[in-house]
Specification:
3-stranded antiparallel beta sheet, 55% helix
């Protein structure tokens, strides 16, 4: 039965438990944090009749202005078919419109509507108290530190070149 006993040279195995020392621990922890935050934000959006995938597109449109669909797909981590469904949903609700791109008969630019901007602002108001709950266990200065650390992790300085 010695096969059941791990050898001393065996690397730690990912378990998804607190204090996991495996090389996958950071990824697993970030995944768990994402699930928790996404669930809370989805709850804030539900009464407004949209999902996180819709809101992700609205964020890009507010931040970047009119954006071609292929760039929306890249910015939101979606595929071509997925982004088309999301934009269809947004158009149906009057939150965004597609417009022809001058000089490119096949490309369509997506633009947020005034109704979309209103919903975008309402989502922020609805999310504020829920977001506070996400950080309620953190001490003074820790929410800002967490944001700083995650920002540096997500946008490494050497990737800005």
């Amino acid at each position: 039965m010695t096969a059941d006993v791990p050898s001393p040279a065996t690397a730690p195995r990912a378990t998804d438990r607190r204090g996991d020392a495996s090389p996958f621990a950071l990824g697993l922890l970030l995944r768990r944090a994402h699930w928790r935050a996404a669930a809370v934000m989805a709850e804030a959006l539900r009464p407004l009749g949209i999902e996180l995938r819709h809101f992700a597109v609205l964020i890009v449109l507010v931040d970047s202005g009119p954006t071609v669909q292929r760039d929306l797909a890249a910015a939101t981590g979606s595929d071509k078919a997925g982004i088309m469904r999301v934009v269809d949903d947004l158009e149906r609700r009057g939150l965004a419109v597609r417009k022809a791109v001058p000089g490119d008969r096949r490309a369509r630019s997506v633009e947020i509507t005034p109704k979309g901007v209103e919903l975008f602002d309402a989502a922020h108001v609805a999310a504020a108290p829920l977001a506070e709950g996400l950080i309620s266990e953190l001490g003074p200065g820790e929410p800002e530190k967490l944001m700083d650390l995650l920002t540096r992790f997500a946008y490494p300085a050497d990737a800005e070149a």
